[in-house]
Amino acid sequence: MNSYNLCLVLVLASLFALSCSQEQGKEEHTSKIANIQNEIEPAEKPAAFETALKNVDQLPLFGGCATWECSNQKLIQYIHDNLKYPEEAKSGTVEGKVFVQFIVETDGTVSNTYIAKDIGAGCGQAAASLVKNMNDLDVKWTPGRHEDKLVNVAMTLPFSFKLE
Q1: Which CATH number fits domain 43-161: 3.30.160, 1.10.8, 1.10.10, 3.30.1150?
Q2: How much is the average pLDDT of 110-134?
Q3: Which residue in 142, 126, 42, 141 sits closest to 83, CA to CA?
Q4: Which is it for strands 110-117 and 96-104: parallel, antiparallel or unpaired?
Q5: Nearest Cα to 106, choosing from 145, 132, 138, 73?
Q6: Of 31, 41, 29, which is closest to residue 120 (Cα–Cα)?
């Protein structure tokens, strides 16, 4: 075998070895992604969402408000004042949107809090805790109405986590 062919064989062998190590790295990376996805996949949606209404004549209102505009302003202020960015998410520079679903009951309380979409690192839990803590406020939600009856209403709140 001449020196040219020997060099070609060595180069090809090196590329094959590099390719194999990259494939192993891809497998490890894919495995890590799968593990992360398993951590943040939403739990099963509570059965109560099957009977709660989504489209109603009057949506629930937050903070004792009589209008949707007031309710939105108070809800945004409540989230701004009370949502804590988890330390794990800060240190891991985790950013994104979390969606929390819940039901506003006919008595104005919140139930069946459920993390519909999570970004991990404690962000979903922080958002869900904030929603659950609404039951500890002095003023409850004004329940939703449909066909002149108080009804349980399924709601979804988006939470944006962005480091500044």
Answers
A1: 3.30.1150
A2: 96
A3: 126
A4: antiparallel
A5: 145
A6: 41
| pTM for this predicted structure | 0.72
Sequence-ordered list of residues with C-beta below 8 angstroms from that of 89, at least 6 positions apart, any chain: 95, 119, 120, 121, 122, 123, 161
Q: If we measure between CA atoms, which residue out of 72, 66, 65, 117 comes closest to residue 96? A: 117
pLDDT in tens, 13-24: 333 333 333 344
Asked if 55 contacts 149 with a C-beta cutoff of 8 angstroms, the reply is no
Any idea which of 1-5, 123-127, 141-145 has the lowest mean pLDDT?
Answer: 1-5
Average pLDDT over residues 134-155: 96
Residue 141: how many CB atoms within 10 A of its CB? Answer: 26
**One-character DSSP codes across 40-83:** HSPPPPPGGGGTSBSS-SB--BSTT-SSHHHHHHHHHHHHHHH-
